[in-house]
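wait is this the right file?? whatever heres the structure
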């Protein structure tokens, strides 16, 4: 265990932290030098991790590097219930097989940030697999409907006469019981999970355990600069994306969230961070240069320093100097007649749907051999280079058997 100074503890509980409940108690626990059991649960409804998840994982790693013990809980039971987490509708339940597949992918990405050798992985089925109806009734008797409806998203849906299933009410109770099952000292989560985290504290106290501390991290704003980072909104940067895509997406973020990204997902020192804030505030540094530094910091952390250098070079060549990349994916397509461009973009996976393709064409985001295309029907020669946006390229190879 590391002996932490007052300054170390202050930084640990301040940078990249939104709220700590109860802060004085956690400070006292850290000062004892005793390894704490840090709980991080995840819902394997989706397999991929983006930089928004990285905010909490980075904080977990900081605690871990100081000698504390991470317990990663795979929510294989709660994923089969579905937690709306602020959504207006219930998520679909997943099969056990879907959960296993998603969990495997998630953990591969999780351990890009958190030390695998110092992490204990637990599955909810270890304790809920033996739960019977009497256990469920006993658990539900600990809380009232009024307490559960205090959760903001439940309250909004109830007042709007939108359906809430009984199984959804179970979600925070099951998540809370996870804390009991592993005897958690601290639970980590985003600010949108505050209600669930606090239920864990209450249940531990009811069942004779010491109440866990709660450490909440802020929700990272996505690349659009408006909404929280989310795959469904398309404003995310995945932790397994290619260095070129990762760097390019960082370069697209609005200037006003640059410092926020530095603070939450890089290891730049507080002193350097304050200097960057000052330079940016006085217009003494070009935001483009700051974003390049940010992009290299992130790519280095998730790939390597060499990959970060190459990603910056790629951005300079392809985006800034508008050169064609050295390596372009080749796509087979029948080019012998007039092409439905919307269909083509969908088939070569450069648009999600025909409507998405139409939007890209209308915005002037699609070009062929350097010429912007604004109509759907067109003829395309073998070997033509299709470009969508600033960074996506494909080389079309004529094939009579594919369309």
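ok assuming it is, sequence goes like this
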């Amino acid at each position: 265990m590391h002996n932490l100074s007052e300054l170390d503890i202050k930084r640990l509980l301040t940078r990249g932290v939104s709220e700590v409940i109860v802060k004085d108690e956690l400070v006292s626990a850290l000062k004892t030098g005793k390894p704490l059991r840090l709980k991080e649960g995840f819902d394997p409804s989706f397999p991929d991790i983006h930089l928004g998840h990285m905010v909490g994982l980075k904080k977990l790693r900081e605690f871990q590097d100081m000698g504390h013990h991470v317990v990663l809980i795979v929510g294989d039971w709660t994923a089969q219930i579905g937690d709306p987490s602020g959504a207006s509708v219930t998520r679909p339940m997943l099969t056990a097989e879907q959960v296993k597949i998603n969990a495997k992918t998630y953990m591969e990405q999780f351990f890009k940030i958190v030390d695998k050798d110092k992490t204990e992985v637990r599955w909810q089925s270890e304790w809920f697999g033996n739960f019977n109806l009497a256990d469920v009734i006993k658990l539900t008797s600990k809380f009232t409907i009024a307490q559960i409806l205090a959760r903001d998203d439940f309250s909004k849906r109830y007042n709007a006469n939108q359906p809430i299933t009984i199984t959804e009410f179970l979600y925070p109770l099951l998540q809370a019981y996870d804390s009991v099952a592993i005897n958690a000292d601290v639970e980590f989560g985003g600010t949108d999970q505050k209600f669930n985290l606090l239920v864990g504290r209450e249940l531990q106290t009811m069942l004779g355990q010491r109440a866990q501390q709660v450490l909440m991290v802020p929700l990272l704003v996505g690349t659009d600069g408006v909404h929280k980072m989310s795959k469904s909104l398309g404003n995310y940067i995945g932790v397994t994306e290619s260095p070129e895509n990762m760097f390019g997406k960082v370069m697209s973020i609005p200037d006003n969230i640059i410092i926020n990204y530095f603070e939450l997902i890089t290891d730049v020192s507080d002193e350097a961070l304050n200097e960057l804030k000052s330079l940016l505030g006085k217009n003494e540094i070009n935001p483009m240069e700051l974003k390049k530094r940010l992009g290299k910091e992130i790519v280095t952390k998730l790939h390597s320093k060499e990959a970060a250098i190459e990603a910056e070079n790629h951005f300079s060549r392809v985006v800034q100097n508008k050169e064609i990349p050295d390596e372009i994916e080749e796509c087979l397509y029948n080019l012998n007649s007039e092409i439905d461009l919307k269909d083509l973009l969908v088939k070569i996976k450069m648009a999600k749907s025909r409507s998405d393709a139409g939007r890209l064409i209308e915005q002037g985001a699609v070009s062929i051999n350097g010429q912007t295309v604004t109509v759907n029907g067109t003829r395309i020669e073998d070997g033509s280079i299709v470009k969508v946006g600033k960074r996506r390229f494909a080389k079309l190879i004529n094939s009579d058997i594919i369309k």
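The longest strand covers residues 392-398. so i think its the right one actually
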